[in-house]
Structure formats: C-alpha cells, structure tokens
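User: Hey, quick favor. My workstation is busy. Could you predict this chain's structure for me?
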Amino acid sequence: MIWRVNQESVVVLGGMTALLLQFAHPLVAAGVRDHSDFRSDPTGRLLRTYRLTLNLVFGTREQALESAREINRRHRTVQGPDYSATDPELLLWVQATLIYSALGAYSEFVGPLGENERDGYYQDTKRLGALLGVPPASYPKDIRAFDEYFAEMIDGPVRVTGDARSLANALLRLRIGAVPRVVFRPLVILTAGLLPPAVRDAYGLAWGRTSQSAFRLARGVLRALDGMAPPLLRELPPARLARRRVESLQRS
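Assistant: No problem, here it is.
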C-alpha cells in the first residue's frame, strides 16, 4: 500500500501540509529554528528531504539504509534545552504528519481509500519508522487508534507558536528560481484544504467561500487528470524503477 499511495505524483502536493503540521509542534519548531537553514533556503531543504524520503520508500535496500543513516546522523546533532530530535515522541509525531498528509492527498486528489487500505498503508509506514528510531511499541495499533492519537495531538501539545508562523511564512512564500510566487498560490490553497481546521485557523490561512471553491475545483481537476494520465506521467520515476527491480527479480 505504501507503494500504491506514494507512487502517485499528486500525493507530493501533501508535503507542505506535513511540514506545517510538524512546525505546529512547539518542540519540533524550536529544533528547526535552532538547527536548520529552512528560513533562508526552504527550497533546498524541501528537495533534500524529498530525495531522502523517496529513497526510503522506493530505493534499494542500500539506498534506504543510507538515507536512514543520513537522517539519523542529522537528528543526533539537533539538541536543545528542552528538545531532542531523537525523542521517540517527536519522531512519532513527524512520522504521523507524513502519514496523515499522504493519506489525505491520495483520498482528495486520486480517490477514496477504504479503512483496510488506510490501515495497510499505516502498517507499512511502521517499517520506515523503525529505521528512523521510532520504537515499534510506541505506534498506535491500527489506523483507528492512529486517528485517535492524531486527534489527541491536535487537541493537546500541538499549537502554532511564533516560531511555527515564521517557518510557515518561509514555506508558503516559496520561490524557485524566477518562477513568480503567484504560480504557487494553488498549492497554498491545497495545503490549507488538507490541514485540520484547527491548525489551518491557527496559521491564519484563508478558508472562506472563495478558497473552498478553489479547493473543490482543483480537487476535481487533479482527480480527472490523474484518471486520464498514463503511468509515465502519473507515477513518480523512483516508483517505476522500484517496480522494474521487483519484476526483474521475479523473472530471474
């Protein structure tokens, strides 16, 4: 299931949602504030994170393990008076934001998933979490328990601080070369639509009638394009490479 969901190009559109959710945990935001160049180079940070994530999901065993080692080495250097990037609770929250955003983006922009499919995806992510220091015992048992955990986090320790707003401002004002910022406006609307309402409101993201209509229109267009597009356009290149590796092994 993790291959089925993460192979879809449109699922990448949930990446900003995951980051805003991560920043909404005050201790995660403090770690990024003190130990990251995110505010000065959000594009570079996003691309590095994206590369490592693709390696973990679709890479060879060697690529996945090396990416995990790279992430863990970096996490060991992120320490502060009241936070540590190796804290299992913070690691679980970061993992949870990725699960939530991927499942949300797939459901909205590709098609709905049944509970068994959502649980299959969730169970697959536990293998990645183990590589990154999340103790297996700390995971909620199944997708229902995960949904309850996520809701409790939103109602509890997760809250948007000044640090989170500063990091979000850098993210939502993303620039890539000479591409005008207005080009990224639809991505901001999609991000707002995927966020839990409480977090969206805390960030001050617009969600009036115009934004909601734009989200529904974009969702419809993305679903239609995804349904019509050939695999070459719809699926991420690393996913196709991974599938070819499996097919080659099955033939040999």
